[in-house]
Amino acid sequence: MRNLLELEALAYLRVNTSLAYSEHYPREALSAVRHIDTAFAYQNETEVGVGIKASGVPRGQVWLTTKLDNSWHKRVAEGIDASLENLGTDYVDLYLIHWPCRTNPNMKEVYSDWDYVDTTSVSSPKLVAYNTSKGIHSTAYSYLGSTTSPLHKDATLLELAEKKGRSPQQVMFVWNITKGRSVIPKSVTADRIQANYEIDGLELTEEDIKVIDSMQGRDGSFLPQNYEKVFYHDDE
């Protein structure tokens, strides 16, 4: 059985784009990395599975992650079976709850039979610190920000990247890895997929890390529209 500790050393591609690119992505990505991240909700698991097989990389060398859709939380066994069939494999290496909030099948209502807590006021650093204290591995999702908060255009980051002779994407990639997190980059071009992972020799000093830590707009969260509460289990 593969150990989650293997995941910490891996960087991987988030495949949630159109079907036209879904077979292409794994073939390109697996020339650089060995972890593919997808989800039932992306509606492209079949194409991802085809792309992995077409890459020629043995299945045992690929860490494959997919996710349980919100409306399937009461049908977990059925959900994983559907994903395995779509992906054309008999196992995945990691199966995640896509969003920690459970909805009814029409996705219009959050079920009330779980305990919930409002986390909209919890900052990402605090959440990551909690995860670390419980031995929970964190992954950097949208690690370059979003269309409304594009970190890769931040003046501070651009200055640091220029000093390092690297791209802002590569600097943020290494910053997250240095923090002990996995990273999920996404691209539609082969050159950029390769460039994201060309980080050999790129090291950040303690001062560099502090500079990124202090960047405005770096800390953020994203919740599905109208989902103001997410499930949060207190094991104490």
UniProtKB/TrEMBL annotation:
Domain NADP-dependent oxidoreductase: 33-111, 147-215
Keyword field: Oxidoreductase
Molecular functions per Gene Ontology: oxidoreductase activity
Keyword Oxidoreductase: yes
Keyword Oxidoreductase tagged: yes
Pfam families: Aldo_ket_red
Organism: Pseudogymnoascus destructans (strain ATCC MYA-4855 / 20631-21) (Bat white-nose syndrome fungus)
Source organism superkingdom: Eukaryota
Protein name: NADP-dependent oxidoreductase domain-containing protein
